[in-house]
Amino acid sequence: MKKIVNDPTNIVDEMLKGMIVSHSELIQRVPETGVIQRKAEKTGKVAVISGGGSGHEPAHAGFVGEGMLSAAVCGEVFTSPTPDQILEAIKVAEEGAGVFLVIKNYSGDIMNFEMAQELAEMEGIEVASVVVDDDVAVEDSLYTQGKRGVAGTLFVHKILGYAAQQGQSIAEIKELADKLVPNIKSIGLALTGVTTPGSKQPSFILGDDEIEYGVGIHGEPGYRREKLQSSRDLAEELLTKLTDEFGEKEEKNFAIMVNGLGGTPLMEQYVFTNDVYTLMKEQNLTIDYYKIGNLMTSLEMQGLSLTMLYLEDDFYIEALQAPVTTISW
Amino acid sequence: MNVETGIRWMELFNEKVQAEKDYLTQLDTPIGDSDHGNNMSRGMTHVIEAIETQKPDSLEELLKLITTNLLSKVGGASGPLYGSAFMGMLKAQKEDNIPWSAVIKSGLESIQKRGKAEAFDKTMIDVWIPVVEALENNQLTDAVIDQAVESTKPLKAKKGRASYVGERSIGHIDPGAYSSGLLFHAMLEAEAE
């Protein structure tokens, strides 16, 4: 796989340098760390922090700014950041009202964020957290640690970021988060595997005419491999999986996110969005909010994910529609 | 184990990790996210640099230095797990006249506390458990280690990222188990020198 790179071991550092020089009005980097912090004036509100491995750009640093994240912690490619880095982010973001961590359900992220939370609490900082597990591709059972956290995490960033901006307390944000996460479901599909910088082979190899349903955001395999079909057929498979998870709902209003995984043009994402719209309309499901684009990517993977947020609470849509000052939302 | 042997242990572990970096990543590819080789390589490079610059003169100092470097440089799941392992060993080492098997056992307990895995979940502890047992009986050999590593192959992953692929994890050696195997092979070699 061809890459535009100098030394693969410095790729995250060099990417962050590039982000900082081009967006210095919005963000700054905590020296010697992978922590990106917003420049906005501190107002004594709850700080919402997220992060994870790099390779998902613009997540997570692209969503740092007023109305969304106070800071993002960027780990190595597809690798959770370390506890000391997360602690650093907590310390610089803290404004006196506590810090809220948004964690994706991957074991590395859970362990590192948990350790950072313990360290921060030892230093007297109030910290609360939520684990996002929106990916329905992997069945929750006795034998797994539950579902992965993928693109739906961005809805959590947006809604909690708005709640923090409105001055909600850390306890209120925790309650909101716990209610919100079960209303978010995602599922992805891949047309290609993904090659991490410096590695010699892709995570998996698909034939020219093959796709894989249910992949994660680190090139992890999914649940089924098939011949490539039309966008409408792909949309039908993903949508069916998601609506099955929601079951019968009285209100049928949703927000959706069509997320490109890095190597899929916006043209194809819009084709797919149109199919989702048509299929949902046929089922009397209403879409009140759309978010389309490369938001939670998996390096250069061709493919996309579909996220549905069930709009159980009017506050969700109010929060989604509120303006923010970030690089990429 | 004294500090000289401990340093030699880390040097040998580092050599093995660097030599098998690509293989570790290859093991992680079908069932995880292909980062185990790079992460362990990065962590051990920092451990060796820290040993060279800080020249620890007690086993306690050495274990402390290994712990902090693995925790702050590895990331992913391996960082907290290996970091916790050496933190547990450090705690046990502070007790007087504690046998080495009990030190390693304390490392195992720390891994389990952090990762919440049980035996046969297809994780690194499937190597640590038989190693502790063998150490307690004074019967640890390279063959015991190899067999423990190999035993993860037919298991279905229940913890860690491999658990997300369920049945597909069967037939692959767990990468954390393999790197733990390297750690204990290096320990035997250092002790034999």
From TrEMBL, chain A:
For this protein, the record's SUPFAM superfamilies field holds: DAK1/DegV-like
Which parts form a coiled-coil structure per UniProt?
225-252
Question: GO cellular-component terms in the record?
Answer: cytosol
Q: Look up the domain of life of the source.
A: Bacteria
Q: Name one GO molecular function term.
A: glycerone kinase activity
Primary enzyme class: transferase
- EC number per UniProt: 2.7.-.-
Q: Which residues form the DhaK domain?
A: 7-329
Signal peptide (from-to): none
Q: Does the keyword Signal apply?
A: no
Q: Which UniProt keywords apply?
A: Coiled coil, Kinase, Transferase
List the InterPro entries hit by this protein, alphabetically: DhaK_1, DhaK_dom, Dihydroxyacetone_Kinase
- Keyword Lyase attributed: no
GO terms in the biological process aspect are: glycerol catabolic process
Matching entries from NCBIfam families are given as: dhaK1
What's the protein here called? PTS-dependent dihydroxyacetone kinase, dihydroxyacetone-binding subunit DhaK
UniProtKB/TrEMBL annotation, chain B:
One annotated Gene Ontology cellular component of this protein: cytosol
> What Gene3D superfamilies does the database record attribute to this sequence?
1.25.40.340
Enzyme Commission numbers on file = 2.7.1.121
Q: Which GO terms describe its biological process?
A: glycerol catabolic process
GO molecular function terms noted in the UniProt entry = glycerone kinase activity; phosphoenolpyruvate-glycerone phosphotransferase activity
Is GTP-binding among this UniProt entry's keywords?
no
Superkingdom, natural source: Bacteria
- Catalytic activity field: dihydroxyacetone + phosphoenolpyruvate = dihydroxyacetone phosphate + pyruvate
PANTHER family membership? TRIOKINASE/FMN CYCLASE (PTHR28629), TRIOKINASE_FMN CYCLASE (PTHR28629:SF4)
Self-association state and partner proteins as the record states: Homodimer. The dihydroxyacetone kinase complex is composed of a homodimer of DhaM, a homodimer of DhaK and the subunit DhaL.
Instruction: Give the protein's biological function.
Output: ADP-binding subunit of the dihydroxyacetone kinase, which is responsible for the phosphoenolpyruvate (PEP)-dependent phosphorylation of dihydroxyacetone. DhaL-ADP is converted to DhaL-ATP via a phosphoryl group transfer from DhaM and transmits it to dihydroxyacetone binds to DhaK.
Q: What is this protein called?
A: phosphoenolpyruvate--glycerone phosphotransferase
Q: Which organism is it from?
A: Jeotgalibaca dankookensis
Q: By which gene is this protein encoded? A: dhaL_2
